Amino acid sequence: MTTAAVLTAAGSGRRLGAAGPKALVPLAGEPLVLHAARRLAASGVVVSVVVTVPPGGEAPFASVLPAELDGVPVRLVAGGASRQASVAAGLAVLGPDVDVVLVHDAARALAGPGLVRAVEAEVRAGRAAVVPGLPVTDTLKRVGRPQVAPGTTTVHGAAGGPVPGPAGAPPAWPVLATVDRGELRAVQTPQGFDRALLDRAHAAAAHLAGDEATALTDDAGLVEALGAEVWVVPGEERAMKVTTAHDLAVARLLLDEGDQ
Ligand code: C5P
């Protein structure tokens, strides 16, 4: 039995200010997706990497990703409208011999081969769903609905968040509680799963749409929704997600500091 990776790369680069897909944005001369695929292959534990790419936008990915990395075949499949749909499209093309799946985001381009091995080993050791995570360093508050000072106005932005209204009033959120950060982890990828469990989780969530779908931002969330146990193992700083231009600058720094 073997382990395969699904590498999600079908998202847009909007928040990064990129014209095309974020996964093609260069970091030290190489697109993020190639960094991520190279590290998955270098782990020595995956037999294939399936990359989900924007539907109709395969050509630029095919030109930057070799058919093989370190002897590991790299295949492209058309992703879907959501991350969840993209992962499902990747799962659908895995061979019958694959019994462990690692789901990884191209946006976490610098997650190291050691982290890939650690997650895979934990799944092989019998935990059916494993995610890397880091302790949270900020103080965290749970907040209520945004409000503005009496006599001013606020309009809501496209993403549902408040933006200053015509009167320029800054929004404020009432604090409901301070959350005990000791029991929180900021979760990363690659996330590792027993393949049958992940297939079941995706099948159960396939009907979700709208807010319900967007609230589930990782595969472990789908597994949790089934009532199955999910385990956290130590993550790593360099597995940070590149979302903004600032993140890209931090990733460049990490590379300069000797990450490979
Ligand atoms: O947009 P965000 O950074 O949260 O996306 C997380 C990962 O999911 C990225 O690697 C992105 O390329 C991928 N994705 C995808 N298909 C989508 C949306 C996002 O493969 N429809």
List keywords for this structure.
two-stranded antiparallel ribbon, globular, nine-stranded mixed sheet, alpha/beta, binds cytidine-5'-monophosphate, Spore Coat Polysaccharide Biosynthesis Protein SpsA, Chain A, 8 helices, 29% helix, 2 domains, 260 residues
What does this protein look like?
InterPro entries: IspD (IPR001228), IspD/TarI (IPR034683), IspD/TarI_cytidylyltransf_bact (IPR050088), ISPD_synthase_CS (IPR018294), Nucleotide-diphossugar_trans (IPR029044). Pathway: Isoprenoid biosynthesis; isopentenyl diphosphate biosynthesis via DXP pathway; isopentenyl diphosphate from 1-deoxy-D-xylulose 5-phosphate: step 2/6. GO terms for molecular function: 2-C-methyl-D-erythritol 4-phosphate cytidylyltransferase activity. The protein has 260 residues and is an alpha/beta fold. It has 2 domains: 2-136 and 188-256, Spore Coat Polysaccharide Biosynthesis Protein SpsA, Chain A (Alpha-Beta Complex); 140-179, no CATH class. It is built from 8 helices and 15 strands. Strands 1, 4, 5, 6, 7, 8, 13, 14 and 15 form a 9-stranded mixed sheet that branches. Strand 2 and strand 3 form a beta hairpin. Helix 5 (195-205) packs across helix 7 (219-225). The longest helix has 12 residues, at 113-124. The radius of gyration is 19 Å and the shape is globular. Bound molecules: cytidine-5'-monophosphate. Cytidine-5'-monophosphate is lined by residues 8-11, 22-23, 52, 79-83, 86, 105-107, 243.
List the helices and strands and how they pair.
Blueprint: E1 2-8, E2 26-27, E3 30-31, H1 32-42, E4 48-53, H2 58-64, E5 68-69, E6 72-78, H3 83-92, E7 98-105, H4 113-124, E8 129-135, E9 140-143, E10 154-156, E11 162-164, E12 175-179, E13 185-187, E14 191-194, H5 195-205, H6 210-215, H7 219-225, E15 231-234, H8 245-256
Parallel strand pairs: 1-4, 1-7, 4-6, 8-15
Antiparallel strand pairs: 2-3, 5-6, 7-14, 8-13, 8-14, 9-12, 10-11
Helix pairs in contact: 5-7
Cytidine-5'-monophosphate binds near residues 9, 81, 83 and 106.
